[in-house]
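Notes from hallway chat w/ T.B., transcribed later so I don't forget. T.B. wanted the structure written out for a chain they're using in a teaching module, and asked if we could keep both sequence and structure tokens in one place. Agreed to drop them here.
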Amino acid sequence: MEESPPSTVIERLKGLDPKYLGGVFALVVLLLFVFQNTDDTQVEFLWFDITMPLFLLLLLTCVLVWIVVLLVQRVNRKRRSS
């Protein structure tokens, strides 16, 4: 049985889809932006009045947007399949 030689890191990177590298780059930039904003901020939403660190607010907003995008994609897939 013939064994293939172990692939190098460069060969693995060449095989990656560019959208994954773009996603990793965007995530790093987002995290740098979020963690540079550590001051407290006041949030007023409807009847809530909360003081929280700005980075936490940014992270929560990103997570909520991510969930909404996933739900919209799921609805669109169901609509296309039927």
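Follow-up for T.B.: The radius of gyration is 20 Å. Might be a good example for the class.
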